[in-house]
Structure formats: structure tokens, C-alpha cells
Amino acid sequence: MWSNWSGGQQARPRATDRPLDEAGVVAAVRRAAARGQRIRPVGAGRSWSPLAVTDEVQLDCSALTGVVAVADGRVRARAGATLAAVLAELDTRGLTLDAVPAALDVTVAGAVTTGTHGSGAGTGSLSAAVTGVRLVDGTATVRSIEGPALDGARCGLGVLGVLTEVDLAVVPAVTLAAREELVPLAEVLACGVLDAHRWVELVVFGDRQVLVRRADPVTGGDVTAPARGDTVRAAAVGSAQALARAVPRLAPALQRSTGRWSGSVTGPAHRVLAGGRAVREERTEWALPRPALEPVLRELDAAAAALGVGPRPPLLVRVGPAETGWLHPAHGRATAWVGLRVPAEHGLFRLVSSVLGAAGGRPHWAARHDWAATDVEVAYPRLPDFRRLRARLDPDRRFAGPVLDALLGP
Length: 410
What we know:
Blueprint: E1 2-3, E2 10-11, E3 15-17, H1 22-34, E4 39-42, E5 57-60, E6 67-71, E7 74-78, H2 83-91, E8 95-96, H3 108-114, E9 130-136, E10 142-145, H4 150-153, E11 162-169, E12 171-172, E13 175-184, H5 185-191, E14 199-204, E15 209-218, H6 231-246, H7 251-257, E16 263-268, H8 269-272, E17 283-289, H9 293-307, E18 315-320, E19 335-341, H10 347-358, E20 362-363, H11 373-379, H12 383-393, H13 402-408
Parallel strand pairs: 3-5, 4-5
Antiparallel strand pairs: 1-2, 6-7, 7-11, 8-12, 9-10, 9-11, 13-15, 13-16, 14-15, 14-18, 17-19, 17-20, 18-19
Helix pairs in contact: 6-7, 9-10, 11-13
């Protein structure tokens, strides 16, 4: 039986293929076609969503690892390579990726397929960095995707084909000085902090206090970042949340305690910005139009109080520019990402989905959500283009499944 990282998604596939190279992927797709079976690729299993769940054939891409080449301002990595491995290789060459997400043990294919992002008003997601992909389509044909169709493959949800190699734009490595401090939410919103830094994210607590984390390039200086980034802080926040659930009256004090430390670290982006996920809980995240952020924060607090769900878990707020990917949640607009840890069965999950969806939000494909095909049709103006590309690359819906049928239509 397969399970994702959090344990929230499980599957009993009829068969599991683990190809060692692209030829193995071609053979796996041909076998599935000969048996009339559908096939779903899976990477590190770090998504909270059910995109990889199948009861037919699961394609484990974990052996498709390694960096193929670094040249002409881009890196070509095999689909199953982790971001940690790619960034480590780039670091030896004085290079890096512009977007550095919080988790680096995700695979390249999984990250770009679901729109995984970092946080910076001028920094696109990993999908935006894609300059070309190589994939095995539903007819077991190897294709290189570039040009206009690339915007379909940038965030393709694994329905266009099995990615085998991905080209990503690289940038010169920089040393970042990161700092965090606890300040009132009103002050944060008034001073424009979300647009003033290379990288910035907010942890918004229920008492309207905000842990502001920001980072900017510096020259010189000693590296002071720990090898595991903010893993220790993540564990502390998770422990506070767990105790707050057990003893609700302690929640406000515990939330404040997670942000009392104020200091700075300096080092390369992949050490300063990335950290472990210490709490194995379910997560939902939504991409909002930037202007909707402030009113949504107010509405969420009011709605949570009216629902009587107790202290609201901290909200993680990140930002990013408009994206061109046809199915990317930030498609066509500057975006504020709002996420929190909450079980899908909890009343707060339904409340958050309702409030953020009504504000024009689109759910992150790697997080938990309750959207159906009718929601996707309204939210994504380039969906017809994506469907035409899908029909060309996977005419027999070899990479479909119940979850994808519900999201994209049969």
C-alpha cells in the first residue's frame, strides 16, 4: 500500500512500476496501454492532495535522478531528482534557482507539476523557471515540449505525460541575510513589507500578531545559517500547535511564544530559506489576488469566531508574481498565498475554503481542497487550451483517474 508523507492519502495500486531510465518509462506506459490500464506518476509523496492516488498502475519515478547538464543559463535535471540534490550541484558552480520553496526533498517533476513556489513579489514559482521539458506521452512517444505549449506543461498535474527531464533557468548564487521578528499585523500591512524584500513570508497568529520573516542579498559576511534551515523553529511551532489543541486556553500564549526569538541568519538561499516539515498534519493553501489579502485576513478571523472553532491555527502568507502557466494557481495575476494546517474533515477547513474561494482564490494543487471541474472551469481561462493539448498528448486518457476526472472532466 502506498501512503503520502502525511498519511492523509493512501492507495492500493494494482501494480507499481519503478523505471530506471526514460526507456523504462516508455515500456511502463506501453504495458499499461496493452492491458487497458491507467497510470499515475508519483514522486516523493510530499503533496497533501490525492493527485497520485490510483488503484491501477502507479509509476514510481524515484530512480530517475541526477543532474544531466548545466549550461546556457539553465540546468537539466531528471524528473525524480530532489530539489536538494539539484541545488547542491548548482551551489558547486556558484549558481542557484530563483525560487527556493520550504521543502527541498520534493522531486523536480512533482514541484513543477503542482506549482510549488517560494515567496517574493518578484520571484516566480519553480514552474515559471521551466524552459523546456521532456516527457513520455499517452502513446508512449518521447516528446520535447517548448514554445507556447510549455505554458500547458508548466503546471500539468501529471496528465500530459510522464516527465523524464526538466530544464530550469538558473541565476547566480547570492548570500542572503534573513531576519524574523514579531510585529502587529496592522503595522505589517501599512509598511508594504511584502513588496520590499527579495524573500518574505508572514505567520499570522489569531491575536493579530505576525512573525515576519524576510531576507535580502548581502555581500561578504560570515555564514551563520544552520545546516537544516528553520527545522528547529518548525518543530517548535508544531509542538505549540499540538499543545494548543489539547489545552485551548493556552493557545494565545503559545502562539506568541513561537515568535519571541528575533535574530538573523546569513547564508546561501537553499540553507536560509528552506526547512523541514516537522508536523505531519494536513494543509490547505490558496492563491488569492493580492488586493484581496487584507480583507480576507479580517474575514477569516470574524468567520472563525462566529463558527466557534476555537483559536485559529497560524496562517502562512507568502507572495508571488503573475504566472503564465495555464493551470498555475497564480495564472494571470499577482498573488498572495494563504495556507494553514487543518484536517479536511474539520469545520475550519470548509470555512477557509468558502472564504478564500469567494475572494477569488484558487487552491494549490499540492494541498487539500474541495474543488470540482465546475470550479476549475470558472477560475482558469486557459483551460480550453490545456484540454486541447491534453487531447493531443494523451488521447486515450492514459494518465487520468477518478481524481483528475473530477477536476478536469473526463
